[in-house]
């Protein structure tokens, strides 16, 4: 029986590569709400956990394993999350050194560090932006089609008070915690990094340098936790705000 089930799953997964729309057959999710605190009073105090079909999980895992080895080529070294051979501790050391240098710095021109946490970042990503990001990354077309089918054909029900709500379909967002979503979101955040690099190249963004021959530092990303560096001025704040607004308008 186990061998028959295994072969059936393998056959179905292989069929989804040929016909991505077949993913819809197993793309039904039950969302359980787990309280973050003992007595929650608002919906924000619950953590949603998605309960997915096993075949769907296998497909997502296969896609994630195909994308994983490409991440070091597709993602700039300023992003450390979910990229092999990159340690978050390295970026923490850089950040500590920046803070130390800021405190010791003298002169008329100061530095600033801005830390931004993107609220509900996974939930707000536009699906069209995900497709555009994958196309720009030049991953194979069959990979893009199967990935987008996995994302866009989902149907959901909420488990609440011992029962299930009516089925509904999301119109944007990624499954947080899904192995593929981690890499997709990291690629989407790379687009923001490219906006920052473009602003630096134009001379609009004034990055900092810890030593005379040291590298220019403009930003560090830890998934949806963003840290920006620049010369301390209102003009630089406006440049940073413009980059964030442009990214937000494109990504959702």
UniProtKB/TrEMBL annotation:
SUPFAM superfamilies: DNA/RNA polymerases. Pfam families: RVT_1 (PF00078). Residues 18-252 form the Reverse transcriptase domain. PROSITE patterns: RT_POL. This is Reverse transcriptase domain-containing protein. It comes from Linum trigynum.
